[in-house]
Design goal:
InterPro entries: AB_hydrolase_fold, NDRG. This protein has 333 residues and is an alpha/beta fold. Helix content is 41%, strand content 17%. Strands 1-2-4-3-5-6-7-8-10-9 form a ten-stranded mixed β-sheet, sandwiched between helices. The protein is globular.
């Protein structure tokens, strides 16, 4: 179902639909917030390992500055098989999908909800899945906001380190080290305790282990920065892409590497100053400003309230006057 452009749900609470969508690779838990609108994309989110849509995105979407976007663009949260709250242990006969297969489960989600185009918002493993989806289905993706993306396959050293970690650390320790940097783990005890509690009490440990294993066995994205007159048959993301990472995140090098492989005319890298492993949790207001400007740059969200326009202008100033590098990096000062 779609509503006309002039209809708005901001006066009322948005309609929420929670469903298990059947795909070729198992059922995925989806939460549709709002009603798709004619000629508007939908924000499609995908979480990281050890998180679900609540622990990954609630801080961002419940922030007061996000209200304009929430009223303008519906949101579809997608959770990997067995990663939602209260999930039962997956059957022993179930073969957990690879990262590539999870990306190929998304067309079934779009078809189920009648979605024509999306703007992807992913974190970590979810960012990788959405990027892979955009590579294979560019006609379905208007833009991507990728937080903490790692475009590389896990190498031999990474695999050995991961195996050693599995032997010497608990699953929560492994996930915490994936999500947060060393300094953050050592100093921000309340935040780490909150996420450790979430991992141990709301996530099915067997299912989480399988999702983590799938991520640790990912293939490289196989994207290449176009060079005029040289790599004619290059493969890269065709949509506008915003890469975000905190400067204290364990994913900094991976995100910078990803930026170096993408088309600089379509890609912006935001490195958030004094920010930890989860920018959307640590500095949601700044992420929202960047998101508003990014969406407005694609021609959407231009006729919302003055507060949204003001925030978008603020974000534009931050982007235009922030420190830049030759690779298109932007840093919030």
């Amino acid at each position: 179902m779609e509503v006309d452009d002039n209809e708005c749900e901001s006066v009322f609470e948005p309609h929420i639909t929670e469903e298990h969508v059947e795909t070729h690779y198992g059922n995925v838990h989806c939460i549709m917030v709002g009603t798709p609108r004619a000629n508007h994309p939908v924000l499609l989110t995908f979480h990281d390992v050890g998180l679900n849509h609540k622990s990954c995105f609630d801080t961002l979407f419940n922030h007061e500055d996000m209200r304009e976007i929430n009223s303008y663009l519906p949101v579809c949260h997608v959770e990997a098989p067995g990663q939602h709250e209260g999930a039962k242990t997956l059957p022993s006969s179930y073969i957990y999908p690879s990262m590539d297969q999870l990306s190929e489960a998304l067309p079934a989600v779009l078809k189920h909800f009648g979605l024509r185009r999306v703007i992807g918002l992913g974190v970590g493993a979810g960012a990788y899945i959405l990027a892979k989806f955009a590579l294979n289905h560019p006609d379905l993706v208007d833009g991507l906001v990728l937080i903490n993306i790692n475009p590389s396959a896990a190498g031999l050293i990474d695999s050995v380190a991961s195996k050693l970690t599995e032997w010497t650390h608990t699953l929560p320790d492994t996930v915490i080290a994936h999500l947060f940097g060393k300094d953050e783990i050592e100093t921000n005890h309340d935040l780490i305790a909150t996420y450790r509690h979430n991992i141990t009490t709301t996530m099915n440990q067997s299912n989480l282990t399988q999702f983590l294993h799938s991520y640790n066995n990912r293939n490289a994205l196989e994207v290449e920065r176009p060079i005029p007159g040289e790599n004619i048959n290059f493969r890269t993301l065709k949509c506008s892409t915003l890469l975000i990472v905190g400067d204290n995140s364990p994913a900094v090098e991976a995100v910078v590497d990803c930026n170096s492989k993408l088309n600089p005319t379509e890609t912006t890298l935001l490195k958030m100053a004094d920010c930890g492993g989860l920018p959307q949790v640590d500095q949601p207001a700044k992420v929202i400003e960047a998101l508003k400007y990014f969406i407005q740059g694609m021609g959407y969200c231009n006729n919302v309230s003055e507060s949204c326009k003001s925030s978008g202008s603020c974000a534009k100033r931050n982007l235009n006057h922030s420190q830049s590098s030759r690779d298109g990096e932007r840093r919030y000062m």
